Amino acid sequence: MDTALTYSQLIILNCNIICVVELKLYNSASRTIETFVPLVDNKISLYVCGITPYDASHLGHAFVFTVFDTLIRFLTLQQYEVTYVQNITDVDDDMLKKASEVGQEWQGLGDQVVGELLNDFAYLNIKSPTHMPKASSSIDKIIEIVGVLIEKGYAYEVDGNVYFDTKKYGIYGSFARLSYKQMIALSSMRGNNIKDTAKKDPLDFVLWQKSLKNEPAWKSLWGMGRPGWHIECSAMSMTYLGNKIDIHGGGADLMFPHHESEIAQTESFTGEQPFVQYWMHCGMVMYESEKMSKSLGNLVFVKDLKKNYSANAIRWLLLSNHYRKPWEYIEEDLMQAQKTIDSIERSLNTKYTIQNTQLPVSFLAALAHDFNTPKALEILVESKSEEQVAMFDMLGFTIKS
Ligand SMILES: [Zn+2]
User: Fold this and answer.
1) Which end of the chain is more exposed for a tag (fewer CB within 10 A), N or C?
2) Percent of the chain beyond pLDDT 90?
3) 221 C-alpha vs ligand 1 centroid, how far in Å?
């Protein structure tokens, strides 16, 4: 990989630290690495699909949120002002099912699990987003969007349920580059009832649905109901970041149907394209050769790792994987990460800080070239102690005084 940058590409700031470099990111929409140019100078709007608060956080969550936390630290160092929105999907089929199973009221369950998740993220030194809206607080915006989509002919109502008309939209599937057959298969695995005969096309997805007994329900033009999954993120991103955003992130498994549907809804509603300038998708975390997922029951929880490994060791393991690549969790790798961290911490010279130390050009270049954190860690390990502390700090590791 070519990460070489000439000094002419760098701007030397008056803080005497070389820290502004040309940023290149892989855009999942174009499938190429592109030079990053924000919509507004020095400002970045970032939306990352957040948590569904019905179970503890696992390593897959920790990977996505640590990647974006570290990216924001780097962008901030690059003198960008980042507005970061991460939603909470508290109205969702899985969420309501879990609340019913455990006999708990859905809001109470959501608040309790969000509290636990935030504790785990704080342990990993992940900073809080600028805004962390709940889907249940965005109902008015959702109803507004659904109403406009019906008016514009992109949605239709049948007996209290409202569906997005994928045929009318015309290019559904172009973002994820999937065939109709592939989309049907994936949709049915990810929450879309393809056998619902009320729909014009099996691919059409729910924007608004009638609430069942004991489910939360809000008043709408189409009766008492609740939102579909995808529309929640369209509403929250537009509410907090406007019609167009710079970077949208999430796990790679969200690309279809979730992000495909977000694009379809948002662009049909606003009439503006593209809704997102750069899409960043994190690779899946595997465990025992399969994707770590609730349905497979092969989750590795942060709360369990915390018992035996330090936050810095877990963060080191996560950042030693390139954000775009799938990787497998093997406990020996975490043990090794703990040894590496212990060794660095022993030699870290804390009298040097990011304020008075120059970050190596090679370190900045690695991060600027599609956010290559594994390369940045390699450079950190090979650097002198007085340089390590600034790199350590920049990557979000906690420095013990
Ligand atoms: Zn989302």
Assistant:
1) C
2) 76
3) 25
Going from the Cα of 3 to the center of ligand 1, the distance in angstroms, rounded, reads 32
pLDDT digits (tens, 9 = 90+) for 284-299: 999 988 888 877 888 9
At a CB cut-off of 8 Å and minimum separation 6, what does 328 contact?
285, 286, 287, 289
Per-residue pLDDT of 149-194, as tens digits, reads 999 999 999 999 999 999 999 999 999 999 999 999 999 998 899 9
Sign (positive/negative) of CA torsion 373, 376, 378, 380? negative
Residue position matching structure tokens 């270049």: 365
CATH architecture of 38-308: 3-Layer(aba) Sandwich (3.40)
- CA–CA gap between residue 145 and residue 262 (Å, rounded): 12
Q: CB under 8 Å to 23, separation ≥6 — which residues?
A: 35, 36, 75, 78, 368
Residues 336, 369 contacting (CB under 8 angstroms): no
pLDDT band at 12 (very low <50, low <70, confident <90, very high): very low
Distance 10 CA to ligand 1 centre (A): 35
Going from the Cα of 279 to the center of ligand 1, the distance in angstroms, rounded, reads 12
Amino acid at 254: L
Distance of CA 384 from the midpoint of ligand 1 (Å): 42
Distance 155 CA to ligand 1 centre (A): 20
Query: Ramachandran region of residue 250, left (φ > 0), alpha (ψ -120 to 50) or beta?
Result: left
Q: 231 C-alpha to center of ligand 1: Å?
A: 8
Measured in angstroms, how far is the CA atom of residue 248 from the centroid of ligand 1? 9
| 10 burial type by CB count under 10 A (0-12 exposed, 13-18 middle, 19+ buried) | middle
Give the pLDDT score at 174: 97
CA angle centred on 344, ends 342 and 348, rounded to 5°:
120
Question: How far does residue 115's CA lie from ligand 1's centre (Å)?
Answer: 20
Rounded to two decimals, the pTM is: 0.93
Q: How far is the CA of 256 from the centre of ligand 1 (A)?
A: 11
* pLDDT on residue 357: 67
196 touches 106 (CB < 8 A): no
Q: Where are the domains of the chain?
A: 38-308, 309-401
